[in-house]
Structures are given as C-alpha cells and as structure tokens.
Amino acid sequence: MVLSGIWKRPENSKDPPPDLRISHAKDLEPDAVQDLCASVGWSRREPLLVSKALNNSVAVVSVWDKDVMVGFARATGDMVFNATIWDVVVRPSYQRCGVGLLVMRELLTELDSFDIPLVTLYADPGTDGFYKRFGFCTDPSGVRGMFREKL
Amino acid sequence: MVLSGIWKRPENSKDPPPDLRISHAKDLEPDAVQDLCASVGWSRREPLLVSKALNNSVAVVSVWDKDVMVGFARATGDMVFNATIWDVVVRPSYQRCGVGLLVMRELLTELDSFDIPLVTLYADPGTDGFYKRFGFCTDPSGVRGMFREKL
C-alpha cells in the first residue's frame, strides 16, 4: 500500500484528530473495502469484482486508522475530459470529524493533477450541500442525471 | 476499423435507410470525431487528447455512411459495477431517422455484454424522453447529478 500523507485536522473540527493515513493505492484488500461499505449498510459484492473495479478506476483514495479503513472514494473516467466519483463513504464512528472532506480533497487533487476539466458525481438526497463545498453544482443548465439499472 | 454490423431501418422510420455501417473500434481518427462534433456545434479538442479519451473509454460506437461518421457515443466506467455514457451525437442531416436509436442500442448492448448493472448519463434539457426509451429514469430516489468544472 502506498501512503501519500498524514491527515491534518480540519481547522473547524471539534473532535480530536485520530492518527489517520491516506492511501492512493488501487490494490486494496476487497474485504477492507467491503467491511467499510457494510458499516454504512451497503451490500457486499464479489471480492474479485471489487478488485477489478478498483483496478479499472482512474483514482482511488482510502483513509486508514491503523489497519482499519475509515474512509473511501474512487473515480472512473477517461483520464482526459471527464471523471465520475463513486462510492464516497465514511465509517459511521468517524463521521463529522473531517474524514469526508479529506477523502474528497485527496481525490479531487489527484483528478486535478491529470487536468481533467469536468468531474461529476451522483449525490444521494441530502448530500448535495456537502459536495457544493468542493465546487459541485446541481443540474447546471438543466442537465439531468439519468440511471438505467440492468434487470 | 472493425465493422460489427449493417444498420437496419427502424420499423417506424419514415425515411429511407442510408447504407450505414456500425463500428465498435476505439482507434478512430480524431478528425472524424471532431468533424461530427463540430456539426452540432461542439468545440474542437486536441486530437491527441481525443485519441487518449477514446482509448480510455470502455465502449465506443460510431455509425458511418461510407467514410462519413454520422453518429457516435462512448462510455467510461469500471467494467464491473457502472458505466457512464458521454458524447451522444448524430450529424444533423441524419437526425430523426433512427441513427440515435442505433447508436444507443449498440452501446447498451456492448455494456450489457459485460454485465454492468448500472449505466448512467447526463441528459441535456429536452433529451430525457429519448433516453427513457432505453430504460433510463431521471433522479431515481432523489439522487441528483452534480458537476464541477475546473477553473
């Protein structure tokens, strides 16, 4: 695992900063990702598929407290014109102390290093305020997100 | 260029079917893509970046009338859990005769062949009715598309 930095406590945080580490590695153990996702109620997926999806992502950020993954996000895209952020998740016991900010800042910094002009995401209800802090806006010029789930 | 099929006239088409060919090749000439995009008013991009973006897409469909590209779409994604469709475009003189349907069907068939459960896109105003024909729905469960353009 490549560790690219040590977490710095956000200026406005009221909570003590845990000793968190940041990783941009894609070769994460699927179980670690699944364990984090399960902590927020997401369903488990086939480990080999998780590894393949991570490897095919253009950027992956995970945040760790010792050997426990406490935050995660990834992005897909063409590495040129656009990227789409998926699976932004923070372990419940680490929420509201800046881990989500940290994950998003790390991911956006990596995407910006590729000079990708457009970054998109699909925000769950009630989360758009969080993403607006990073410059995201909802439905610009009337553009609407659409979804098709395979039966 | 790999040609995967010959266009069949849609049942409800009122226009004579041109002799169209379908390609799933990624190694398209950037000028051909740019020429099509310029026909609908999109700005030109650096050819090397266009090639890189095509190569990094998970699926690319183009439709040709002889040596003229008349329809195009591509998708990015992780090849496992999700894909996002971009740049759906039909040359104006070929609009309203089934080329858009053809492009979308070819692209979705390719994505479905990978068993990707979720396909998303961002629909320009007034185009959501077109995408609903393929099973896309807008803002399911209140999920909203968000965009961040790099300054």
- Please give the oligomerization state of what you see: homodimer
Helix content of chain A: 25-40%
Q: What is the CATH homology-level superfamily of chain A?
A: Gcn5-related N-acetyltransferase (GNAT)
Low-pLDDT parts of chain A are none
Structural class of chain A: alpha+beta
Give the DSSP E fraction of chain A (strand runs of 2 or more residues).
Answer: 25-35%
Spatial arrangement of strands, main beta sheet of chain A: 1-2-3-4-5-6
Number of domains of chain A: 1
What is the mean pLDDT of chain A?
90
Q: Provide the gyration radius of chain A in Å.
A: 15 Å
CATH architecture level-2 label of chain A: 3-Layer(aba) Sandwich
Strand count, sense and barrel status of the largest sheet of chain A are:
6 strands, mixed
Measured between the Cα atoms of the first and last residue of chain A, the distance is 37 Å
Query: Based on CA inertia axes, which overall geometry of chain A fits?
Result: globular
Q: Name the helix and strand elements of chain A from N-terminus to C-terminus, one letter apiece.
A: EEHHEEEHEHEE
Instruction: Work out the number of β strands of chain A.
Output: 8
Q: Under CATH, the topology of chain A is which? A: Aminopeptidase
Structure, briefly:
The structure is a homodimer of 151-residue chains. With 151 residues, chain A is α+β, with helices and mostly antiparallel strands. In chain A, 26% of the residues lie in helices and 32% in strands.
